[in-house]
Specification:
The complex is a heterodimer. Chain A is α+β, with helices and mostly antiparallel strands. Chain A has helices at residues 3-9, 11-30, 48-72, 77-84, 88-101, 108-126, 142-150, 160-181, 272-295, 298-311, 314-320, 328-336, 338-356, 361-372, and strands at 154-156, 189-197, 200-207, 226-232, 257-264, 267-268. In chain A, a hairpin with a 2-residue loop joins strand 5 (257-264) and strand 6 (267-268). In chain B, strand 5, helix 2 and strand 6 (77-79) form a beta-alpha-beta unit. The chains are: A alpha+beta, B alpha/beta.
Chain lengths: 376, 106
């Protein structure tokens, strides 16, 4: 067992890790809202806690089962890392340890087994900086950075036009991953860096799984992954998010951008017109997707949410030969117990969340910490 | 001029006409360059966000959805105003100051 395994098995250190994780979850939730409103967890059409009532239990059990099978089959860390490709899925699972896993009927030991295993897998990507201390998310070593840079063409973004084309494309990609995965959008992207480089500091934005089978409209997208390397003036303070939800920097940083390079699927982009073409295609798919989603009724919409919640388990399920799809109980909950579960949401859970908004900040933090703590 | 104060979420200044959209089913009403005013954005607002020159929301903090997205697009954004959708009216000409978190109108 490597160093990353040692700290996981030490109870004090493990507790510290969980405490850190809880602080980050609470901070993420509170920074998404203004002072007086309740936690933003309830604002979107299918808020996470509502989904949880339909499938949280089954999801937690499946994750637990798959992680045990990985242990039993002695699947190497390297293989796990290769199948996941990015840490964003693991950090997403870690957040879920605070809600789906915590609230499941799994025994406490099983819940903590999941958290430990996930920390261990996360360490494969982020090495010793698990919590993105100082806002850094370093997952490439020097060799990987050089390999990825080698074939790319860097556009200078000094002129307004090229900056606008690339920025719009980037922002649309981010929005598109939200349309695909809603609050779980890091399932479609990973931002990492900053990597010190000859000409400045490099930020890498990777977008993937852009054509998931779950959404038919995504078939019309002409590409399925994008890699963007951005060079910023040295010393630009860009803070990345532990949960890979985006860039946490709130002061303007884009004016320090010097150049950008793009690879779409496996093709390095050499002309700005190509970016414009991909952007137009992306905008059309976004419009189509937005129209399609709005045509769904709430039950159909929830069904789609269940699908991508389980879809995220696919890389781990593939490793142990398990089907990733939601088990029949989940669909039964949606088809047969819809009104009852929706009622619990509206009359109990949502009201509880809304009450937190009027409490002092310290009290809100305490409540949220307890709410997400898998040990409690 | 009258003012509304919220949380400064994305720097920059924009001037334009207000378009209040409370239901994403109405996003087509927003014309290129108008200022999107809503309670809280979600992914269904995406086509409107791409067309808007600035974003204003009643709810949300510095790391809320609208704020993150506006910064990525480099568009001014003020969030957590609480009553923007009530005070502002469609077609009203306003100035959004994303650095000070202020809206100037009237």
């Amino acid at each position: 067992m490597g160093n990353e395994g040692k700290f996981i098995m030490d109870k004090n250190n493990f507790d510290k890790k969980i405490n850190k994780l809880l602080n980050i979850i609470v901070d993420s939730i509170l920074s998404a809202k203004s002072k007086k409103e309740a936690a933003a967890l309830t604002l979107w059409p299918i808020p996470t806690p509502l989904g949880m009532l339909f499938w949280g239990e089954e999801w937690a059990k499946k994750l637990n089962q798959v992680l045990h099978l990985i242990e039993e089959q002695k699947i190497s860390d390297e293989k796990i890392k290769k199948s996941l490709k990015f840490p964003s899925k693991i950090v997403h699972f870690l957040w879920r340890c605070g809600d789906a896993v915590k609230n499941s009927s799994l025994a406490k030991e099983e819940k903590l087994f999941i958290v430990k295993k996930l920390f261990k897998i996360l360490a494969l990507f982020r090495k010793e900086n698990l919590f993105c201390k100082s806002g850094e998310n370093i997952i490439w070593d020097k060799k990987e950075l050089e390999n990825n840079k080698r074939s790319l063409y860097f556009f200078s973004v000094r002129d307004r036009k090229s900056k606008k084309i690339i920025s719009n494309f980037e922002a649309a990609l981010y929005l598109y991953t939200e349309l695909l995965y809603w609050a779980q959008h890091p399932l479609g992207h990973c931002f990492h860096g900053l990597y010190p480089d000859k000409k400045g500091d490099l930020l890498v934005r990777e977008y993937f799984d852009l054509r998931p089978k779950i959404w038919n409209f995504s078939k019309n997208l002409n590409f399925s992954q994008v890699e963007i390397l951005e060079t910023y003036k040295r010393g630009t303070k860009i803070k990345l998010d532990f949960f890979e939800r985006g860039i946490r920097t709130i002061v303007p940083f884009k004016q320090n951008l010097k150049s950008s390079a793009l690879k779409i699927d496996t093709k390095p982009i050499k002309k700005l017109e190509e970016v414009s073409r991909f952007y137009n295609n992306l905008k059309n798919v976004i419009q189509e997707g937005s129209n399609f989603i709005q045509s769904l009724n709430e039950q159909q919409f929830i069904e789609k949410h269940a699908a991508y919640w389980f879809f995220v388990l696919k890389p781990l399920c593939d490793l142990v030969g398990k089907d990733w799809r939601p088990p029949p109980q989940v669909l039964n909950n949606i088809y047969k117990r819809y009104s009852k579960i929706k009622g619990i949401w509206q009359n109990v859970v949502k009201k509880d969340f809304e009450k937190t908004g009027v409490l002092p900040l310290g009290r809100q933090k305490d409540i949220l910490r307890k709410m997400f703590d898998p040990r409690v | 001029m009258k003012q509304l104060k919220g949380i400064a979420a994305s720097y920059g200044i924009a001037q334009g006409k207000v378009r209040i959209i409370l239901n994403p089913k109405n996003i087509d009403k927003l014309k290129e360059g108008e200022i999107l005013v809503t309670k809280f954005t979600n992914p269904l607002f995406t086509p409107a966000i791409l067309k808007a020159s600035a974003i204003i929301t009643d709810m949300g903090g510095k790391l809320s959805h609208g704020a993150i997205v506006a910064r990525e697009l480099g568009k001014p954004c003020v969030v957590g105003i609480e009553k923007a959708t009530k005070v502002l009216k469609n077609g009203m000409k306003i100035i959004v100051d994303g650095e000070r978190g202020k809206i100037y109108y009237g």
